[in-house]
Write a structure and sequence with these properties.
Layout: H1 3-6, H2 17-28, H3 32-61, H4 71-98, H5 107-151, H6 159-190
Length: 195
């Protein structure tokens, strides 16, 4: 027996494992393992969403605000940086927590596959956010303005504020679609070596 085959591959364990196993066994029946993986994938996705939205928010509030001269460029750059930060985190959490039994391929190959799937998701999301952020912000601001003015009386939104609101709303819609795409594409390509 070689030294490599005698090394036990252990995944990351955390306090969420117990409740996830309980829910998966209760609702999953014969598919409990897939339910467990989906729940873990969703939690990793939620962490990625926090990283993604937080990075996007910070970038737009500081060095990459939507500008009136070329708002699409700053929006595209900011959301790309945020997306890369999130998928980097997601890859490692998924490899070591969601799919700890999927190690028959090298981490480089899996990361490459994960990156291709996320690249497809990023392209779709980027196009969506870049196209929709301005009209979505213009449509949502009048609806949300009374609530905003409850906390900031006399607030008058600027075109930049509308663009930021539209970016975040577009990000939310795009994020849900990309999460579903990523789960199924990664499950059946990147991590297809698990039972």
């Amino acid at each position: 027996m070689s030294q490599m085959s005698s090394i036990k591959r252990v995944g990351v364990r955390n306090p969420l494992d117990g409740p996830i196993y309980a829910i998966a066994n209760r609702v999953g029946g014969s598919k409990a393992k897939e339910v467990e993986r989906f729940l873990k994938f969703a939690i990793v996705g939620a962490l990625g969403a926090v990283i993604d939205s937080g990075t996007l928010f910070i970038l737009q509030a500081t060095i990459l605000p939507p500008s009136l001269q070329d708002p699409d460029l700053n929006v595209a750059i900011a959301q790309t940086i945020a997306f890369v930060a999130a998928i980097t985190s997601n890859y490692f959490w998924n490899r070591f927590w969601t799919y700890p039994d999927s190690r028959s391929r090298s981490w480089r190959r899996q990361m490459g596959q994960f990156a291709v799937i996320n690249l497809i998701g990023w392209i779709g999301r980027s196009i969506w956010i870049t196209v929709i952020h301005a009209p979505l912000g213009s449509a949502l601001m009048p609806l949300l303005l009374p609530e905003i003015q409850m906390f900031r009386p006399g607030y008058v939104p600027s075109p930049t504020a509308e663009a930021k609101l539209g970016t975040m709303a577009g990000w939310l819609i795009g994020g849900v679609v990309v999460m579903i795409w990523n789960f199924f594409a990664n499950r059946y390509w990147t991590y297809n070596d698990v039972a």
